[in-house]
Amino acid sequence: AAAPEAMPSATAAAPADQGGMPSTEVLESGSGLGPAPRAPPCLFVCVDLEWFELDQSKLLEIGWSMWDNVTTTHTSKHWIVAEHLNVVNSRYVPNHKHNFKFGSSSIGPGAEGAAALQRDLDVKAWWAQQQQQQGQAPCLVLVGHGMSSDLAMMADMGVVIPKDTLVVDTEQLCWACLGGDRAACQLSLRAVLSWLQVPDVSGLHNGGNDARYTMEAMLRMCAYQPAAGQSQAVQAVQTGEASRGVQAVQAA
Predict the structure, then answer these.
(1) What letter does residue 163 receive in the DSSP assignment?
(2) Nearest to 191, CA basis, from 178, 74, 179
(3) What backbone torsions phi and psi does residue 65 show, to the nearest 5 degrees?
(4) Interval 100-127: pLDDT, tens
């Protein structure tokens, strides 16, 4: 569901843009930061689901984007649910179902899309592909923006979030950077991307695009340098469940 447009008032020192945005690209994050704490290998998976605005039981799209702190490679995927192929949004949010910017969309049954996402949440399989069987055990970090509805829908889809998965909500991360009160109003993804000066933003409310942009927002906020007086707010990011995920980005 679309959140009210609330524009952050601070200006972030966002990392330099890496140019074009193909489906798979190498992202550099954390440039300019001091020595990062030692972090385990982490796979970040950002999920965004799109459902029919007039009936939230109808799942239309599954989008997910993956980044890891070992290869710093970014891959995005988009699944259009065949059962509701001809159902589109238009009243409250635009229809960008067929406007995935970061690769080719797949069309198929929702159950197959859920299974594809489930496979990509297998952090042990990802680590085996890296041929890095030694050293620290890998961790999975689930990323999203205003995640409560997505988490509930994932459960309805039968997607099982692995035990010990860390969670980073970019809406909460943004409020921590700003030092504001997240209870005051919701921050839309568009507002956060504008504050972070992410270029060439288009096609929002496509599940794959939103997942990719949310991951970009997370990476940029992990490299965020607080303004004077904001240090305590940013320290809040370094406590609790999200801290290991943030540190893993900074250590890349």
Answers:
(1) T
(2) 178
(3) -135, 135
(4) 999 999 999 999 999 999 999 999 999 9
